[in-house]
Amino acid sequence: MKNSKKVLKRDKETKEAQIEIENIVWGGKGIGRIDGKVYFIPKSVPQDRLLIKVTKEKKDYGYGEIVKIIYPSPYRVSPLCKDFKRCGGCQIQMMNYKLQVESKEKMAKEILRRWLNKAKFNSLLAMENPFEYRHSGEFHIKWMGEKCLCGFYEGESHKVVDFENCYLFPKGFNSKIKGIKNFVYRKKIEGISSFNLSSGENEEGYIATFLVGENDFDLKDFENIQKEVDLNGVVVKSKNGVEILRKGECFLTYTIKKREELLPEEIKFKVDVESFTQANFQINAELVYEVLRLANLSSNETVLELFSGAGNFTLPLAMKCKEVTAVEKCEKAIEDSKFNANLNSLHNVKHLKGDVKEQIRKLISTSEKYDLVLLDPPRGGAYEIIEGIAAFNPKRVLYISCNLPTLERDLRRLNEFGFFAEEFSFFDLFPHTYGVETAVLLRSKNDKN
Ligand SMILES: C[S@@+](CC[C@H](N)C(=O)[O-])C[C@H]1O[C@@H](n2cnc3c(N)ncnc32)[C@H](O)[C@@H]1O
Q: Would you give the DSSP letter of residue 430?
């Protein structure tokens, strides 16, 4: 980058300064330097020259916000969304998509720099159309006097941004959000704090799950929402997670199509709205194929899969190996996974319902061994179970992660137990956000392959 090393002038009184943005970091903020010190600037683009106001100073770094764009980056674009400035649903819609992809790759390489010279890094798989890719989202509702706000939170706050249209979702999805919002507004239903809206692949069937507080509410209203907005199903839950109402068909469906040399038959999924599904069906399918390629299973091998959900990886893996043992704590997800195994005539899956730590402890006591351990933990990662994974003495570990910093920490831990990162693949599951999905294959020092 041309000017990134240049010391930029700073006005101490107003705490305003000029800065040139170098790249984005985890969280989506751009970074630049003033007198060698790093500053994090939201909604800035690599190669922007900005006038910023310093909002927070720490000893080694600081935060700022844009006062003026002095020279816009050549990669700066007008975001489609008119609420982008405030809404926390996206962080980088003002970057052209090609640069988003390059910047995410650069960010991933920076976070995983320890492994750069030791492992193969594949390019990040981008989307052809980086809009209208999501099939599921969580929307907050807040009453401000007579006004009902509905949308995502502002970045780093709990203020609800009442967006008009979210371009990450298909048009049909947006009209369902509007339908729900209008109903809630007209009927003045004040007890809802948020709702999740999900649909199956190709927008087949919409299901809404409403989270309600202590306030009085009339369950009849939710039955009427279902009819008026034409939803396949409606669930009402209290804030402590207890289901109060379930009406209609509360599941979604998707398919992973067969792919030559990787997946010999297509796999159908039917998943309860309470179970986890990846929010981007198209890139999820690519992730599944890549998992199969990296796993490179032979028909006599066994797999232990941790955090297995409704069987998204379990069933494709089962098609390629002797047996998969799948561990998952969500009751609905385990039921789905069993149902989907039968639906696809896969009878070589053992399902264990419970906490992974507890199930690992039980499996170790039976001296079970596995050729491959696959794990796909939530964003907090899996640090505390790595010692347990090593106890199975697997030849390979395949780690799927939605959080690069916790992945990096866990890879160091796996390394301490003799597992070496061999190949990384990256996926743009969430265009316009800083998110990167990663699949990394590790090999045990004991594997002679
Ligand atoms: C990121 S999702 C992955 C699910 C699945 N692999 C997929 O691709 O759809 C993580 C899953 O881990 C489950 N989970 C979270 N914490 C768990 C724990 N401590 N023990 C077992 N399962 C857990 C969640 O219910 C969720 O289904």
A: S
